[in-house]
Amino acid sequence: MAVSKGALDGVFVLDLSRILAGPTCTQLLGDLGATVIKVENPKSGGDDTRGWGPHYARDTEGKPTDLSAYFMAANRNKRSVAVDIATPEGQALLRKLASRADVLVENFKPGGLAKYGLDHATLLAAHPGLVYCSISGFGQTGPNSAQPGYDLMAQGYGGIMSITGAPDGPPMKVGVGIADVMCGMYATIGILAALRHRDATGEGQHIDLSLVDSAMAWLVNEGTNYLTSGQLPERRGNAHPNIVPYDAFECADGHILLAIGNDAQFARFCDATGIPQEPRFATNLNRIGNRTDLMAVMGPVLRRFTKADLLARLHAVGVPCGPINTIAQALQSPQAMARGAVVAMPRDDVDGGMLRLLANPLNMSATPVRYDRPPPRFGQDTDEVIAELGIDSLQK
């Protein structure tokens, strides 16, 4: 049986990005079959995240490698090429790579690549079919465009921190770099759309995407709630502004989640737990208006049940509920195992000969996700890529 090619087989991606947003995007493209060349700076030892420990893959002698867990999260299916972009030789090599690329992704400060002749205007003039994606903190325009962008600042500036956390606590960021990750997702979508346009017309284009723009876009219902009402959303912890009860609730031995989305589910919930069905709680609108009173009624009742007992009762009557897993419990759960949430990639220069990574969640019947290349060591593919370009070294 023939091995399926990836959906993006034949697409060449030049990756000039680092940290998380750009690498998330290019890893997704690589998972879908694109050839991705990751350019890393030899003066700094490569992508900053290679040094973001404390957790590293260890070599066969037990010593830490430059494969940090953080770096490995966003850099499989890539080849690493060490290039000093500040040198004429490095610039010439990158221009040659760009001449062969379908896609270029970069996250330098706006205008930062112009002095090397690698900015979007220069490269699109030379290669009109190129899809050139620029990722930055605030975008290529606007009063804040020159400011550096990090996930924490994007979460703060974009508004999500103002509605995350306990009502009586401080503003809180999401537990992972979600502004970076979502920006990488938007970048992937934009690149795929631009490639379709290029394939239809021959015309490439510049994609200008920022962490802050992305963070504001995924305010979703809370952003629209504000635009519709003019009222600022409140921090509600795990509670929902438009659905009650939708929160984490304490049981005798911990907490569970309830996500009761309609009145019929709430009635079944009351029957299963013995909570009285009162007119003031009969509809979701009433429950929103009487949220505090309902929580006061529910609390003592739910604390009588163990987590296992309550979840079993509610699952039996079709009430949406679930556990709050640790990462270990989530990744080792029967559901995760059945769905292949973790992928093992062989690499014979690390302890155990294998790297365990989070899998891509896409399940595609005709062009499945590929796991062809484990995250690369710094510069490991430099000679191979240079040879493919038909030159002997960076000096030519």
What would you say this structure looks like, in words?
The protein is α/β, with parallel strands linked by helices and 396 residues long. It has 2 domains: 256 residues, Crotonobetainyl-coa:carnitine coa-transferase, domain 1 (Rossmann fold, 3-Layer(aba) Sandwich), CATH 3.40.50.10540; 81 residues, formyl-coa transferase, domain 3 (2-Layer Sandwich). Helices cover 36% and strands 16% of the residues. The protein has 15 helices and 13 strands. A 6-stranded parallel β-sheet has the order 5-2-1-6-7-8, with helices on both faces. Strands 9-10-11 form a 3-stranded antiparallel β-sheet, covered by helices on one side. Strands 3-4 form a two-stranded antiparallel sheet. Helix 1 crosses helix 6, helix 5 crosses helix 7 and helix 6 crosses helix 7. The chain is globular, with a radius of gyration of 25 Å. The protein starts with 11 loop residues before the first strand and ends in an 8-residue tail after the last helix. The mean pLDDT is 96.
Which CATH architecture of the largest domain is right?
Answer: 3-Layer(aba) Sandwich
Question: Can you write the helix and strand succession as a string?
Answer: EHEEEHEHEHEHHEHHEEHHHHEHHEEH
Major beta sheet summary:
6 strands, parallel
Low-confidence segments: none
- How are strands sequenced across the largest beta sheet? 5-2-1-6-7-8
SS-based structural class?
alpha/beta
**Overall average pLDDT:** 96
- SS summary, helix count: 15
Gross morphology is globular
